[in-house]
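Objective 1.3, modelling of assemblies. Example input:
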Amino acid sequence: MRIKLPQDMTRWELRRFLDKVDPPNMDGCKLWTGAEISGGYGQFKLRGRSVLAHRVAWTHENGPIPDDRDLDHNFARGCRSKLCVNTAHLELVTPAENQRRRVVARRWRASIQVWTELDEG
Ligand SMILES: [Zn+2]
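Predicted structure (tokens):
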């Protein structure tokens, strides 16, 4: 069961959230600077519960996330970090599509690793 996130964050809650968000980096990612959970996602405490920061940002701007959709950090839109809370980098996808993209992103990271090693060698 997923936690239903409030769409009606108060101004105070929103400020507390935005305080932990960096300005866009060169990828356009707005990185979360607060707590992290395992898996590398940002974590935000909201109304006594721990919630995922990127889901909070999405819900605040676009409304509820359907139960049968994942919120993907969209690689094709330039997103390079799971700590990113830039809603322009996020997209609702089916879990199957999310899994497919995860494989593509992993390959990309592996290729960067190879190039780095070649550079150093
Ligand atoms: Zn991003």
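Residues 29, 73, 79, 81, 84, 86, 89 surround zinc ion (CB under 6 Å).
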